[in-house]
Amino acid sequence: MDKIQNAANYVTDSVKGATSTASKEANKEVAKDNNASLGTRASATKDAIGDKVDEKKHNTSADVNKEAAKH
Fold first, then answer.
1. 7-11: long-range pairs with CB below 8 Å, 24+
2. Is the overall model pTM greater than 0.90, yes or no?
3. In this predicted model, what pLDDT tens digit does every residue of 30-55 receive, in sequence order?
4. Considering only CA atoms, which of 59, 46, 67, 62 is closest in space to residue 20?
5. Coil, strand, or helix at residue 15?
6. What percent of the chain has pLDDT over 90?
C-alpha cells in the first residue's frame, strides 16, 4: 500500500515541479521584457525566485517518493 501512495505522490510532485518550472520560465521572460514597467518586472523577478524554490521542493520530494516506491 505504501508503494502505491509513494508512486501517487511521485506523480503529483512531478506535475507540481513541472508547473513551477513553466511558471518560473514565464516570469523570467516578463522580468527581461524592456517594455514592461519596472514594477511588473520586479514582481516577475520575485515570482520567478519563488517558483524556483517551489520547483526544487517538488522535484526533491518527487525523487524521494520515486525511491521509496522502488523498495
1. 7/65, 7/69, 9/61, 9/62, 9/65, 10/62, 10/65, 10/66, 10/69
2. no
3. 999 999 999 999 999 999 999 999 99
4. 59
5. helix
6. 94
How big is the CA angle at 55 (ends 4 and 14), to the nearest 5 degrees?
A: 25
Asked whether 69 and 7 are in contact (CB, 8 A), the reply is yes
Q: Do the beta carbons of residue 17 and residue 51 sit within 8 Å?
A: no
Give the contacts of 9 (CB within 8 A, at least 6 positions apart): 61, 62, 65
Q: Which three cell numbers stand for residue 19?
A: 508547473
